[in-house]
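Sequence only, no structure available. Ideas?
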Amino acid sequence: MGWGGRVISRAVLRRSLCAIAALALTLTAAPARPAAAKAGRHVAGFVVFWDGGSSQRTWRKDYASYGQVYFDTATLVEPDRVVNRIPAWVVGFVRRHHLTSQICVANDPGSNFDAAMLHTLLTHPGDQRRVIAQLVHLVAGTPFDGIDMDFENGGPGDAQSFVAFLGQLHAALLAAHKTLSVTVPAETYRDAQKPWNRGYDYGPIARNVDAVLVMAYDYSYQGGPPGPIAPLGWVKHVLQYATVTIPRAKLQLGLPAYAYDWLTKSPYPSVSLTLRQVVRWLRRHGAVQPRWDTAASQPYYTYRDNSGRRHYVAFEDAKSTAAVLRLAKAYRVGTVFTWYVGSETTAVFQELRRYGG
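Reply:
I predicted one. Tokens follow.
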């Protein structure tokens, strides 16, 4: 399978299920926990494999600057089947340099996170057992430290089932001396009970995993009206809520390293850009000058395309990134992560490096 993909056979699956059952019996003997994260501040990042190789090249060049990386390579393609495609060189590179890393598995077999498939998984115990066995198999005997779950669009009716599933997966991974983290949408006191957030209850989730990655971005999102992606005041509210519902030792704060270019008329079609693309575009169009959104503490610019349509572009720069990092430091956040490695500019990367020390 391309990229060294590992599709789990039924024979392997049966062996993995038996192994998990046997390992589970040893939990009462208090097996050794995976090593805890080192104290201090760290920078983590997601490495993607669909951007023409930029993310991989950037990470390979700057790997020593990242305390942890998440490889965005595994997909829930059916309610009971996970496919992982990761280049063989990555496995060897991680092993050779003894890097802290996890395989990220997401419920996005197409272009969107599949809510229906996630619901099916969370309501069928047999599917859960098979997926847990596959995920343990993906990392057992590899240099990867564990699994990161990026299951999005979870419904409010599945919140308890999601927590229970995480608890079972965590126990299985712990028995294999591996870790579990989960990526969750940003919430504040005001919007924690909104329908799109009620599927993710921070407190119970945190009790069943080793780390919780809070995506403090997409305040303004594709499909909605244009605006700042991570306004500073909103990020502060996210941190206020996260730091009382998630132990700080488990909390990781996500920063956007990307931009959105919207048309300003409904239904607001938009495209995602890397920060590097934004810089190149501005250099080519010197008449367009970025402006500073004082309320959001973020830059933006507007322009008209060849058809006369007005665009609004929200993005990040070194100044806005530094402001969020000062906030993270004030709230004593140990690890910040970026979505995604290879999208940031050199100036933004330097701010991140300063945070990680």
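The first strand starts at residue 6 and ends at 7.
Hope that gets you unstuck.
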